[in-house]
What we know:
By secondary structure, the chain is mainly beta. Helices cover 9% and strands 38% of the residues.
Amino acid sequence: MLKHITRWQAESLIRGSEGRTFCVHFRKRSDGSDRTMVASTNISQHVNGRGRNYNAKDHGLIVVTDLELGELRSVPIEGIVSVRFGKDEEILYVSDSPDNPL
Length: 102
């Protein structure tokens, strides 16, 4: 059985993950291509003290660490297709409305 969640629920789960590793599949804003990333919201090892020139949340982005590259990346909330926490947990598919899946 597929489990569908809203974009707001996906954002809330990722932001509240407290550094847990997760896999997120999303569409990139820059060129519309699909991307799958193993990531974490634990970004403290990449903080340089200067901060960003913008507030990512104001731009609909979630800042994560791409664990394969070891670098900070931004995930566009409106582009999230699915998210999974832990390899044995079910994949949560994102739709605009739980009554209208994908």
